[in-house]
Design brief:
single chain; 297 residues; alpha+beta; outer membrane lipoprotein receptor (LolB), chain A; 2 domains; twelve-stranded mixed β-sheet; 12 strands; globular
Length: 297
């Protein structure tokens, strides 16, 4: 597109010069104009071809428009699936976790269900130990939580309606910028059905951020903590501009001692977060057994 604009400006300059010349030398005017017409026609044809070749999606405009669309949802759901392989001295532990959420913005309602299990290809099966279930409901300003064991608790939410809404809005532009801030390179791809953004992240910066964060990875405070790989892919539906998935791949390692044996713990995981049911979540109901048995915190 820039080539096209430059060519038009060049044509305007040439035409201005010809107009000036025509005032001084009327005899050469016809031949000069004919010659210029031929050049202009050639330039126009060339620029039309360049314009077609240079026509690429405006990534920033796509992000801006998709942000607006995703921010206007009245409700939505997500499913986040995390497949993790932990390896310590060649012994593998394979875990699978799933989080399901439903969000309604006005009045604000929220539901979260958490499950985790150990998979059969683990070297030492401890299914009961690794099996986890949990949940959260937030309705009418009250949070109901199942965080440990099988006992529900409840407490009044510490956040206003507006704060809760803002926390759960899909701020696509902010998510993109967060990845850009720690990316070493970024790739944009357009397929028949999707826009795809991929970020390869700065491993040293990610390791530093993990160590400075209260919500870092397990083992982040251990000796020899390092991030070996991390990339994030965001997939946006071309027709609706809905954010469909965010896929995160990460591999890291740290030194540890387990049962008097020292070695390196290597952790690799893939997380796929899928957004769905946009504007189709109509109601979140807290089960009667939760309402009746939840204890005040």
């Amino acid at each position: 597109m820039n080539k096209y604009i430059k060519a038009i400006m060049l044509s305007l300059v040439v035409i201005s010069l010809l107009m000036a010349c025509s005032e001084d030398t009327s005899e050469s005017n016809d031949s000069s104009q004919n010659e210029q017409r031929n050049k202009d026609n050639e330039a126009t044809e060339n620029n039309q071809g360049n314009d077609t070749n240079d026509e690429e999606p405006d990534v920033e405009q796509i992000i801006k428009e998709a942000t607006k669309v995703n921010n206007e949802f009245e409700s939505y759901s997500t499913i986040e699936e995390k497949d993790t392989v932990e390896t310590f001295n060649d012994e593998k532990n394979h875990l699978f976790a799933k989080e399901e959420t439903n969000v309604i913005f006005s009045p604000f309602q929220f539901e979260l269900k958490i499950e985790q299990e150990q998979l059969d290809d683990s070297d030492h099966l401890q299914k009961e130990f690794f099996a986890k279930e949990g949940g959260i409901y937030l309705v009418d300003g009250i949070s109901y939580m199942l965080l440990q064991g099988d006992e529900w608790s409840k407490k009044e939410s510490e956040y206003t309606e507006e704060e809760l809404q803002d926390q759960e809005k899909i701020h696509l532009d902010k998510q993109v910028q967060r990845y850009r801030d720690v990316a070493v390179d970024e790739d944009f791809e357009e397929t028949e059905e999707h826009y795809i953004l991929t970020f390869n992240l700065d491993l040293e910066q990610i390791a530093k951020n993990d160590q400075e964060s209260d919500q870092g990875e397990i083992g982040v405070s251990g000796e020899g903590y390092k991030v070996n790989e991390m990339d994030v892919t965001m997939k946006i539906n071309k027709e609706t501009l809905y954010l469909e998935t965010i896929t995160t791949n990460k591999s890291y390692a740290y030194d540890m001692e387990y049962k008097e044996e020292k070695g390196e713990m290597s952790v690799t995981y893939e997380t796929i977060k899928t957004y769905q049911n946009q504007n189709d979540v109509k109601e979140i109901v807290v089960p009667d057994e939760v309402l009746e048995n939840a204890k005040e915190l």
